Amino acid sequence: MNDTGGIERLRNIYSELKGAEKRVGEYILKNPEDIIHSSITELAENCKCGDATVSRLSKKLGFKGYQDLKIRIASEIVKPIVNIHEEIKENDDSLVLMQKIFNSTISSLNETLRINDSKELDKAIGYIHNSKRIAFFGMGGSAAIALDAYHKFMRTGKYCIFHDDSHFQAMVSSMYDENDCIIAISNTGSNKELVENLKIGKEKGVKIISVTSNYKSPISKVSDVVLVSYGKENLSRSEAMESRISALSLIDCMFVGTCLKDKDNYYKVLGEIRDAIAIKRY
């Protein structure tokens, strides 16, 4: 236990804490930066408990006292040593569960930002802007992301369609040409039918933009632009859970970039859409 950080130790026993100790534990987990600047009395007041409760919790965590706990947490804040991909445990409290999942997702978003070249994004935006028609392809769980992208890009005024059926995808790919583009979503990038459908479009000169978690996957070989949605897998959740959020963020980047290319038209179409759906609401 001596090698583990104060925050990790607290997470490990948080579900076992009761009453005032749990209030102190919750406050520390939610406000670790504040702890390094707070005295034991200030922390106790914030948690509506006595100094003895804070001291007792510090010792329960394996520290000599509150000051020792503060020093350890300060080192974690300044130079993070907490594993942001911590495994979720069966007895994790809901607060700890939220923190582990959110921290891991934030890390995946940061990694997605780091590994993607802005030039590739610019290229994708250029292809979309210059296209007459845009098709959104996705299968299985990726279909929901493709549908979300279709829902967004309708607001650009471009002719957009969405298909998650292999036969429809093949038909669309065969009818599109060099003036059109297909945005394909595939977490693994290895769906054989999807890749085959993209090849049909590729042979017709269609621009292919793929969003995948694996830049070395088969879909990358038939794509003009590859954007990588990073996600880390562990025992509790698949990488698709995190890469889904990363993929949605990359789609948002393409969407906003496309809108900025033709702002006047975007605002015009957006106004028309809002007027059309206004009658659907009370």
UniProtKB/TrEMBL annotation:
User: Has UniProt tagged this entry with the keyword Heme?
Assistant: no
Under Pfam families, the record lists: HTH_6 (PF01418), SIS (PF01380)
User: Which keywords, in A-to-Z order, does the entry hold?
Assistant: DNA-binding, Transcription, Transcription regulation
Signal peptide residues on this chain, from the entry's feature table = none
Domain SIS, first and last residues per copy: 124-266
Superkingdom per UniProt: Bacteria
Q: Domain named HTH rpiR-type: which ranges?
A: 4-80
Which named protein is this? MurR/RpiR family transcriptional regulator
What organism does the UniProt record list as the source? Clostridium frigoris
